[in-house]
Design goal:
By secondary structure, this protein is α/β, with parallel strands linked by helices. It has one domain (23-153, 169-228): 3-Layer(aba) Sandwich (Rossmann fold). The chain is 27% helix and 22% strand. The protein has a 7-stranded mixed β-sheet, with helices on both faces. Helix 3 (52-60) links the parallel strand 1 (42-46) and strand 2. It is globular. InterPro entries: RNA_methyltr_RlmE, RNA_MeTrfase_FtsJ_dom, rRNA-MeTfrase_E, SAM-dependent_MTases_sf. Belongs to the class I-like SAM-binding methyltransferase superfamily. RNA methyltransferase RlmE family. Residues 19-227 form the Ribosomal RNA methyltransferase FtsJ domain. The active site is at residue 185.
Amino acid sequence: MSGAGAPDFFYREAQRLGYVARSAFKLLQMQKQYKLIKPGSVVLDLGCAPGAWLQVACQSLGPLKNGGAVVGIDVKKVKVPSLHCDSRVQTVAADVMNLSKQQVRELSPKKKGFSVILSDMCPLVSGITSRDAALSFELGMRAVDLAVGRAADIPGDNFQMEGESCTYNPDDNGVLQSRGHLVIKLLESEDTKELNQVCKPLFKKASWLRPKATRSSSREIYLICQDLQS
């Protein structure tokens, strides 16, 4: 169980239903409200530990015959949970901040990119509100950069990888497919508005959500971006 406090409803429900963490209910709520993951979707889960979102994503694909895939990336090595996951789920131990878009794209079936990108990445919380928010914003911007590339036109973009050219490269368009969806977790701050301003023109719809399973003491909020425009 993560965080402080006595086991609550979501923690007990996660145990009862076989989810590895209560965070499963955050994605379940998103699925219910926004229907992001459909049969055949190709899902990228950034910051996938301990694996609860992998479980919900795989369930949302429906039966194995429907196809689709779920790829989880985390700095830790994450074992694919035995419950609610099948052969469509795989995990990769890597630092998202050090991966090129091409490396991420190559993890997708036929290297065609992803139809849904979920970023549940969170910094190691120091307790210093402004510092934690800044680190969270950096992770959020990284998710946007991976998803849409230079289309985001992020001022002062500092995500150029060592050895990458500064000239435009068609491959720098990002790994999210047209009409795809992007979910980003942030620690609420003034900077979160900036991220919304970056994403809003690129997607048909951008909404904020604080899931019911979020702890009352948490400043977590999710930006749900739907239908990437061509």
